[in-house]
Automatic annotation (TrEMBL):
<feature type="transmembrane region" description="Helical">
    <location>
        <begin position="84"/>
        <end position="104"/>
    </location>
</feature>
<keyword id="KW-1003">Cell membrane</keyword>
<keyword id="KW-0812">Transmembrane</keyword>
<feature type="transmembrane region" description="Helical">
    <location>
        <begin position="9"/>
        <end position="26"/>
    </location>
</feature>
<feature type="transmembrane region" description="Helical">
    <location>
        <begin position="111"/>
        <end position="135"/>
    </location>
</feature>
<feature type="transmembrane region" description="Helical">
    <location>
        <begin position="59"/>
        <end position="78"/>
    </location>
</feature>
<protein>
    <submittedName>
        <fullName>Branched-chain amino acid ABC transporter permease</fullName>
    </submittedName>
</protein>
<keyword id="KW-1133">Transmembrane helix</keyword>
<feature type="transmembrane region" description="Helical">
    <location>
        <begin position="208"/>
        <end position="229"/>
    </location>
</feature>
<dbReference type="Pfam" id="PF02653">
    <property type="entry name" value="BPD_transp_2"/>
</dbReference>
<feature type="transmembrane region" description="Helical">
    <location>
        <begin position="32"/>
        <end position="52"/>
    </location>
</feature>
<feature type="transmembrane region" description="Helical">
    <location>
        <begin position="281"/>
        <end position="302"/>
    </location>
</feature>
<keyword id="KW-0472">Membrane</keyword>
<dbReference type="InterPro" id="IPR001851">
    <property type="entry name" value="ABC_transp_permease"/>
</dbReference>
<feature type="transmembrane region" description="Helical">
    <location>
        <begin position="155"/>
        <end position="173"/>
    </location>
</feature>
<dbReference type="InterPro" id="IPR043428">
    <property type="entry name" value="LivM-like"/>
</dbReference>
Length: 344
């Protein structure tokens, strides 16, 4: 372990302790609900970050995959009585399958055409959830059962969300820091250059998008249980834009930045609660400020601050030149030049 990594590990340890002990010092259950909502959103955004932040694909329709996981959880647990934890895994598998089927044709589209395809998917899912009343409850929606003990209390559910979010974060961190992550960044910066060095472009895109579908399905199941009742209006298209903006504000190409963006944008309505009518104004103002002032995102600012707090490189005193040795070397060189001049 290097000395420069100690501050980062210390920050990570303090953050982990605060997250685990949050139910013991939080003010009320609503604040705990807000913390759980941040964790649920992060489960989805952590996977989406690999698509948007690392691969550079403009996916704005992940709310459709979120709704699939939510309705799957509500139907399978509520109507058929399947174990909620097993259904959580099934929702992730279903989200991954839908992500695979969506990405198979749409990932061949360039840039904004792919974004339009994901937007169309989100709108189609909203219409299907409204039209299939016998399955989804239509406009009336569906009640969503909770998890069994020990996750049947607000504190227990928060710890479940924290565990799932930590697992997803660990998985995305491993993808980002290893060869896959370097391949994703190369693909984002230049598909031609990435293909030239042997990066499997389409397979990499499809794999990452499928993984983001898995995280969206799991996040949807947790989201439905947290809400306890879901309707088609729960999964508005603006929610998909919210997920996308969290990554842009946090900063692409990192994990810490989008997480900070998720926390800030989820908690922002509570910070400006007395000015609720101006909520969209504050969202737009924050996005504009970040794009103009810190285009690299909030994560870049945090990394810069941490880098300044770390002692990098050797002590500057050790870099001072040895004047005596330098003068002796110059004198020897001059004598050798004089001797060669006499010899010639």
């Amino acid at each position: 372990m290097t000395t420069s990594s100690l501050p980062r590990l210390g920050t990570l340890a303090v953050g982990g302790i605060l997250a685990v002990t949050l139910p013991f010092w939080v003010g009320d259950f609503y604040q705990l609900h807000l913390a759980a909502l941040i964790g649920v959103y992060w489960v989805l955004i952590a996977g989406l970050n690999l698509v948007v932040g690392y691969t550079g694909q403009l996916s704005i329709g992940h709310v459709g995959l979120l709704s699939i996981g939510s309705y799957a959880f509500a139907i399978v647990v509520g109507r058929y009585g399947v174990d909620p934890l097993l259904t959580l895994a099934l929702a992730g598998a279903l989200g991954g399958l839908c992500g695979f089927l969506l990405g198979l044709p749409s990932l061949r589209l360039p840039g904004f055409y792919f974004a339009m395809a994901t937007m169309a998917f989100a709108l189609i899912m909203a219409e299907l959830s409204l039209a299939q009343g016998g399955l989804t409850g239509g406009g009336a929606g569906l009640p969503v059962p909770g998890f069994a003990a020990p996750f049947d209390t607000p504190t227990g559910f928060y710890w479940l969300v924290l565990l799932v979010a930590a697992l997803i974060t660990w998985m995305t961190w491993n993808v980002a820091r290893l060869m896959w992550g370097r391949g994703l960044i190369a693909l984002r910066d230049s598909e031609v250059a990435a293909a030239a060095v042997g990066v499997p472009i389409f397979r990499l895109k499809l794999t990452v998008f499928t993984f983001s579908g898995v995280t969206a399905g799991i996040g949807g199941a947790l989201f439905a249980s947290l809400q306890s009742y879901i309707t088609p209006e729960t999964f508005v298209f603006e929610l998909g834009l919210f997920f996308f903006v969290c990554i842009i504000i946090g900063g692409r190409g990192s994990i810490l930045g989008p997480f900070v963006g998720t926390v800030v944008l989820t908690a922002l309505p509570e910070m400006v609660a007395p000015l609720a009518k101006l909520g969209n104004f504050f969202y737009g103002l924050l996005l504009l400020a970040v794009v103009l002032v810190v285009p690299e995102g909030i994560g870049h600012v945090i990394k810069s601050v941490l880098a300044r707090l770390q002692k990098k490189g050797p002590d500057p005193k050790g870099l001072q030149p040895d004047i005596g040795r330098l003068a002796a070397a110059v004198r020897r060189g001059m004598r050798q030049d004089i001797q060669r001049g006499h010899a010639s």
